[in-house]
Amino acid sequence: MSPKLRFKVFASRLLRYFFQGLLILAPIGITALTLYWAFVTIDNIIPKEIIPADAGFSFLKYKGVGFLLVLVLVVLVGYLSSSFIIGRIFDLFDHLLERTPFIKYIYTSIKDVFDAFVGEKKKFDHPVLVQIYGVDVWEMGFITQADVSNFGLEGYMAVYVPHAYAITGKVFMVPKEKVKQLTNISAGDAMKFAVSGGVTNI
Asked: 3-class SS at 65?
């Protein structure tokens, strides 16, 4: 084998090993960076630079303490909201924010998004196939409103179709006969399939 051919074989193997390593390390690295970003962001909610060094609560300066305090606060609020009296106070505060001009648009939008994913009234738990662009073309989506007659559309429903490799999507009002319920896969698998661009096996 000539040196030139030997070099081409070596370069081809090196490139193949590089992409194999990239396929292994990239998902791990991106996941680790995302978790690290979330950890640092939550941990820095408490501004450590304003805490005096000789203060009795100077322990807040240590890395990770702010993160743990935020987790404890979230769990504590969840626990208190389950009691009748404290729950009513949270409900009053919730109603106040929902009726405050300008703030209500931001607050209700964010609240609805969280409710759709992790709330008691989850919206993305009815995976479907929906015809939008053609008779033989199906999109993966989720029913968010089974009846949209308040928009003047009798016999229609609202279907959310997520975009691949993104956290965005679009809502379509489609006739009910163009929606096919998916009962053989879970909502989580359907979302993973749609967001991954269809490359994930379910």
From this structure: helix
Domain ranges of the chain: 127-196
Cβ 182 vs Cβ 202: under 8 Å: no
Among candidate residues 177, 142, 147, the one with its CA nearest the CA of residue 160: 142
Which amino acid is residue 64, in one-letter code?
G
Residue-wise pLDDT tens digits, 105-120: 788 777 776 776 665 5
This prediction's pTM: 0.58
The 10s digit of each residue's pLDDT in 125-172 is 788 999 988 778 898 888 888 888 888 889 999 998 988 887 788 889
For residue 151, give every residue at least 6 positions away whose Cβ sits within 8 Å of its Cβ, in sequence order, or none. Answer: 173
Radius of gyration of the CA atoms of the chain, in A:
25
Given the structure tokens 């390390």, which residue do they identify?
Answer: 25
CB atoms within 10 A of CB 190: 22
Four-residue CA torsion sign, 169, 175, 178, 181: positive
